[in-house]
Amino acid sequence: MLIIKDIYNLQTYLNAYRDKGYSIGYVPTMGALHEGHRSLIEKSCNDNQKTIISIFINEKQFNDAQDFEAYPRNKGDDYNFCDKHNVDIIFEPSAEEIYPKEYKSIQNSHFKNILCDQYRPGHFDGVVNVLNRLFNIIESNKVYFGEKDFQQLKIVENLIKENFPNLKLVPVSTVRSTEGIALSSRNSKLSKKQMTDFISFQKEVIQFITHLDKKADLIEANKKAEEFIKSYEKFDYFEFRNATNLSLEGSLVEARLFYAIYKSSVRLIDNIRL
Ligand code: PAF
Given a cut of 90, is residue 233 above it in pLDDT? Predict the structure, then answer.
């Protein structure tokens, strides 16, 4: 396994792969790797001859400086993790490498002012900037994204459609703990008690969803969702949206429940298919 920090070296290796006719799968990450990342890596290794993963904590997508500082980092473990799961290249660039002085910013224009975009202004601009740059540098055949960050996935779908016609986006289902919690790097920030509370919350959410009439329209269902979440101390959103276009139109059959809640200062997001 190679650990490469600069674009020049990276492209030398990637070009050598391409010369040999190898297909390249790419998994973008911000490190603190877990089983959710493993499923993306495994899928890429199954589909391609070579798998590259990037580890870059992209400050531009943190709308809160404290959140950036507190984001989990565990380099040594990440290297071992990638090695164990047959990654061929880790690309771990510096901020200067990704954003040189002449870099021209782009902006996200999709799925604006709803869900995470409403509560984390500028977050998705940061995401599309880093991905636009990384996709241009790496030029992989396929790229792998988890469904846990569903709004991100939909935004990336549009970025790829508009700017990267030769890149295939592969969505991968969310990996959950046996208690039903979506795996996330941020989970490591929860105390035991917070994790226990989060598990109970998740179980109540599943109960709540199970008892809804799937033919109900989203306006009606969201009234019930509002009622359900009322007593919960801190959340950004908790609502059903159409899984295709993230609108509030249609019925529960074609929807997902989206939520962003807080456990102390840790913000946790998930989306659940009905
Ligand atoms: O989902 C993430 O970890 C990040 O948003 C991504 C896609 C690696 C961009 O920094």
Answer: no
